[in-house]
Structure to design on (332 residues):
C-alpha cells in the first residue's frame, strides 16, 4: 500500500508539472512526502520478526488413513520362491494354517511350521492318505481327513484324535466357519454335510445332488468365507471344471465361473482364500494358478512349476504352495 501511495503522488506531481500548475511549495511538499514513505518502506523491509510456532498435537485415535495397497495381491508380480520346505520323497499333500503356524505333511510326520519357517513340532501320521486339512479357531484345532475318518490335531501337543462320533464315509474336503464344520464326499453327485462344533460335533444339515452338483459331477474342494462356500466342481461328461460361490446357509448359488482348465479324471483342482474375498485356484494338471475376483471373474493366470497341488495364505504376507517336492513360500 505504501508503494501504491508513492506511485499515486508521483503521478499527481507529473500531472501538475505538465499542466504548469505546480508551485515550488507544492513540489517540495510532495517530494518530502515521497521521501518519508520510502524511508518507512525501507525500515519495514529491514525489520526481522520472531514468530513462535507451537507444535500441533493430534489424537491418533481420530486419524484413519485408507491405503488401497494393503493386502493387495498381484499374481503377475508374484515374487520368486523365498524358501522351500523340502519333502524327503515326492508327496502330493494338502496344507493348512492358522494365524501363527502352518501344518504340513512331511512324510511320515505331520509337522508344525512357525512364522520363521522352521519346523517346531511334529508327530507321526499313520492313518493313510490325507485328503484335506483345515483350521478351526472355535475348537483351536486343525482338522485332518483321510479316506473315511476325521481327526483333530492339537498344535500345542501335536496330539491326534479320531472323532469317533462321525460316521465313516468317503470324505474328500473340509472347511469350518465359527460355528460349523463342513465336509464333502468323494463320490459322484457329492454331498455336503454340516456339523456343529460346540458343545459337541453333531450333524446339523445335509445337502445332496442336485442341490450340491449334478449326479455326474464331483466336488473337489470346499472353502468357507464370510457366510459363503467356494465349491470346486468337476464335470467329466463335459470335461469342465468350475468354481461356484454358494451361501453356506442355504447353498444357493451366488455366481459360477467355468475355468479354462484341461480336464483330468484323477487330478483335483483346489482353491484357497486370498485377501479381500478373492480366490486363488490351483491346477496341478496344467501347472497353472488363477487369480479370481470376489465377484467371480478371472483377474489373471500364470504358469507355475513344478506343478502346484495346494495353496494357503500364511501370516498375511506369505503364500505357501505345495508341490510334489515340498512347500514353496512366496513373500507378498
Amino acid at each position: 500500500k505504501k508503494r501504491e501511495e508513492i506511485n499515486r503522488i508521483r503521478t499527481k506531481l507529473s500531472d501538475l508539472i505538465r499542466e504548469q500548475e505546480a508551485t515550488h511549495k507544492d513540489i517540495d511538499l510532495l517530494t518530502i512526502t515521497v521521501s518519508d514513505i520510502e524511508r518507512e518502506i525501507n525500515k519495514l523491509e529491514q525489520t526481522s520478526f520472531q514468530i513462535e510456532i507451537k507444535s500441533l498435537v493430534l489424537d491418533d485415535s481420530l486419524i484413519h488413513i485408507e491405503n488401497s495397497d494393503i493386502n493387495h495381491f498381484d499374481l503377475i508380480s508374484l515374487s520368486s520362491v523365498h524358501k522351500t520346505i523340502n519333502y524327503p520323497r515326492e508327496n502330493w499333500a494338502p496344507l493348512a494354517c492358522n494365524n501363527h503356524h502352518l501344518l504340513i505333511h512331511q512324510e511320515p510326520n505331520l509337522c508344525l511350521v512357525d512364522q520363521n519357517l522352521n519346523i517346531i513340532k511334529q508327530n507321526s501320521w499313520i492313518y493313510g492318505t490325507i485328503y484335506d486339512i483345515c483350521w478351526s479357531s472355535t475348537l483351536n484345532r486343525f482338522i485332518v481327513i483321510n479316506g473315511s475318518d476325521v481327526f483333530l490335531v492339537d498344535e500345542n501337543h501335536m496330539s491326534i484324535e479320531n472323532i469317533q462320533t462321525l460316521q465313516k464315509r468317503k470324505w474328500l474336503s473340509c472347511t469350518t466357519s465359527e460355528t460349523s464344520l463342513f465336509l464333502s464326499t468323494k463320490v459322484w453327485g457329492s454331498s455336503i454335510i454340516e456339523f456343529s462344533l460346540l458343545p459337541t460335533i453333531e450333524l446339523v444339515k445335509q445337502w445332496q445332488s442336485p442341490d450340491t452338483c449334478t449326479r455326474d459331477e464331483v466336488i473337489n474342494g470346499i472353502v468357507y468365507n464370510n457366510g459363503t462356500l467356494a465349491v470346486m466342481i468337476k464335470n467329466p461328461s463335459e470335461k469342465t471344471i468350475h468354481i461356484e460361490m454358494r451361501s453356506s446357509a442355504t447353498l444357493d448359488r451366488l455366481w459360477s465361473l467355468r475355468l479354462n482348465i484341461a480336464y483330468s479324471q484323477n487330478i483335483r483342482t483346489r482353491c484357497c482364500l486370498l485377501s479381500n474375498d478373492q480366490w486363488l485356484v490351483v491346477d496341478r494338471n496344467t501347472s497353472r494358478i488363477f487369480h479370481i475376483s470376489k465377484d467371480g471373474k478371472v483377474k489373471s493366470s500364470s504358469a507355475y512349476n513344478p506343478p502346484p497341488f495346494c495353496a494357503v495364505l500364511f501370516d498375511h504376507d506369505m503364500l505357501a504352495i505345495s508341490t510334489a517336492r515340498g512347500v514353496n513360500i512366496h513373500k507378498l
Q: What stands out?
A: The CA atoms of residues 238 and 263 lie 9 Å apart.
